[in-house]
Amino acid sequence: MKVATGCFSLFIDVNNYLYCSSSYEHVVVRKYLDDDMEMVPVASTGKEGSSLNELFYPIGIFVDTNFDLYVADSENHRVQLFVFGEKSGKTVAGQSSMDITVELIRPHSIALDADKYIFISDSGNHRIVASGPNGFRCLVGCNRDGKQAHQLDMPTKFSFDVHGNMFVYDSGSDRVQKFHLQKDSCKNVSSDTQSTYSSILTENHDMYSRVRFNRSNYYYEAIAVIVSKNDFYILTGNSSIDLYGHVYKDQFDPFNPTNNLIAWYGKYCNKDQFKFTLELLVNTKYILVVTTYNQHVTGPFSVTTFGSNAARLERINIKQGIESTYTTVVAQNDENYSSTNSGGRNPNYYYKPVQLNVIKSDSYSIWLTVENMSMGISFSLYKHDFNVLNRSENLLMRRSICDINDLPPITVELLKDIRYIMVVTTCVGDSTVGFKCKIFAKHNTNFELTSTYSNYSSALTRDSQTYMCNPANVILQRFVDSSTYCYVGGPCNVLVKDIGFTLDDILRLEVNQNRTIYDQPVVIEITGALTVIMFVAGVINSFCSILTFRDDSFRQVGCGVYLLVSSIASLLTITMFTIKFWFVIVTQMSISIRLSVLQGGCKSMETLLKLFFYCDVWFQACAAIERAVNAYKGVSFDKEKSKCFARWIVFILPIVIMSTLVHEPLLRQTLDYVIKEHILDIEEIVLYRHSWCITTYSQPIQKYNTAIQFIHHLGPFIINLFSSILFIIIRSVRRRAETQNGQHFREQLGENKQLLYCPAMLLVLSIPRLIISLLSGCTNISNRLWLYLTGYFISFTPSILIFVVFICPSKSYRKAFKQSFSRICRRRAIKKQITDTSFVY
């Protein structure tokens, strides 16, 4: 007996027939061992395929006592049943099964027990599965692949001994595993208490699709199962018709019968009626759905439960959903994208973007059907928007129908007022296909054909930059998508900008890489010089202010403490501003900066700059509050208490401010894009490097960030203004009470007008920074570069004007500064005199 291509599996039935699975020939053949006749095909035509009369690389086979043949159709990811004498098979497990079974990947071996329950080595899923009284379940290898005792790695062969223990050849681990039969694993359920429910399925009952890929032609009745004690229960069905039972937990969706399904049983298991042994819990909703094995069948039935306690069975009504249908064709005039295949050619993948609009937040079941099975389609669902340059961005889910002509229903939670984009494309490049999308839910779904193209026109020149993207050459003027300024990054690595601008956004595209500072554009040279001037002026102002408030007489009250700390914060602010400016310039000029340095600067510098800036203005506001309190209390003002309170504020306030900014370093990230060139396939050099420091906010965080910006910018101004007005009014009232003269408010206003001018000036100077912080990230900066630069630099001028704003208008502060400066000059003169005297001796 010769077999041309070998047998991957052999089986001998009770009549002494030998079966051989010829995998390379895609056929199962049979021969009677008691004669010399040739082997004849009993399953498949010998042609590779996925039809019911075809196989694709069959491996495991099993023949039961009825001479029915079971075949592990490996590359079709299914198990086929060929009833004795039939040429067409039926899928009893795996892909394309009409019944609800189990998903398989390259099943290898199969076996049946005495009750005709199927055992399958699901090699691709690294597990052994089996059917049972409650449907299919996983036996071993249920926790992913691995080398541990309870795990499997590509199991192929398995067998049972006389005790029921299972031996598995684990090919990926080169070992044979033994799994012991747990004889006490099946709990004995008491049959003392019974509950019976009787009804009749009629043509007035609702219908649904019990099987996948079919119409709703099965009458059903939904029954709630309610228990009063946590325990095991038996549910059995009895009828003169062939019943099919499903048990669901929490919810039953007629449009997606696999969702929430915990047990199913029927004639596909070679049983006429259903019988479940389940552990049911109190306060948990269970739904038993009774239907029929065949379509359009009606008749009486009864359900009986057994257990230690009675179970209550009540009929419930399942709200029928609404079917929304959309049919179209992915054609050659649709939008497309390219993808390089192994041959180096770039096929076009046409796609159809369809917007889904739902009127209420709920669960929706999506069902796709493709017209041409040989083509297949890929389905993707996006939230908010679809970016063809980065097809993983905003992606909620992706499914493919490349091997079968229908996709199992997908259940997804869709929210009202959220834009969802369904993108359908072909599995094969340069091809078109028709498809139908059905969405089942309690509410209607609207389909709207949309577009992902953005209109843009420009001229590409020889000076434009180029990049390599897998591996097509594309010429761009900039690495920002010029059709919309929302995007940053290279074409293979794109992110969407959020609200607000930083110095990085304003100057990044103006810096010439691999050039010295003297070869940079005029705008870089001017802003660099201006930054140095601001730094020098800020350092001088801050040191003068610190020199003034070092006087012990001014630090006897909290106001002097606040202004001293504010002077230090101003110095830190202008210093950090200068460091950040040159960090941006240097990192954009050089292409050799480490990514860790870029990430560290991105996450820390802007946050520290805001921290110092906000501390500065809030300490000034604290000084204004204390000035007003001092005026209000007059001689009863407690200086010691004020000083003690100020020390606590100086300690606590920076912590509070930092807590409002803690989200920024967590949400900041660096997008690094490097352009390289290969020289003779030997040397690789970096031509350009572009890095973006961006912040991506969720909607709640964005609202929170906006509120924080307003609080930090407007809060100190309001406090300064009202404290100054209160100070002037109180001083005026007291002087009027002393002299009975009504002109003193005007006099007080003239004497203390700097108290009103200062907060107003600080507000005007900080408004540009507030606007820049809240502008949309999609704004085109390059068109008004000088406007944004001017606004950004002006917003930091308060940090270099603290001496001018607070000390120069005050006679007492000016006097204290002169005295401190004179003391320093005298000390220097004395030191010089001592040095000269020592030199003479």
CATH fold annotation of the largest domain: Rhopdopsin 7-helix transmembrane proteins
The CATH architecture of the largest domain is: Up-down Bundle
Oligomer: single chain
Poorly predicted runs are: 340-344, 454-499, 678-682
NHL repeats: 42-85
Transmembrane segments: 526-549, 561-591, 611-632, 644-662, 710-733, 754-774, 786-808
InterPro entries: 6-blade_b-propeller_TolB-like, NHL_repeat
Pfam families: NHL
Characterise the protein shown here.
With 841 residues, this protein is of the alpha+beta class. It has five domains: 171 residues, Neuraminidase (6 Propeller); 124 residues, Sandwich (Jelly Rolls); 128 residues, Jelly Rolls (Sandwich); 293 residues, Rhodopsin 7-helix transmembrane proteins (Rhopdopsin 7-helix transmembrane proteins, Up-down Bundle); 31 residues. Helix content is 30%, strand content 32%. The strands form eleven sheets. Strands 17, 18, 20, 21, 23 and 25 form a six-stranded antiparallel sheet that branches. Strands 27, 28, 30, 31, 33 and 35 form a six-stranded antiparallel sheet that branches. A hairpin with a 2-residue loop joins β36 and β37. The longest helix has 41 residues. The N and C termini lie far apart (124 Å). It holds the Pfam family NHL. InterPro entries: 6-blade_b-propeller_TolB-like, NHL_repeat. One of its GO terms (cellular component) is extracellular region.
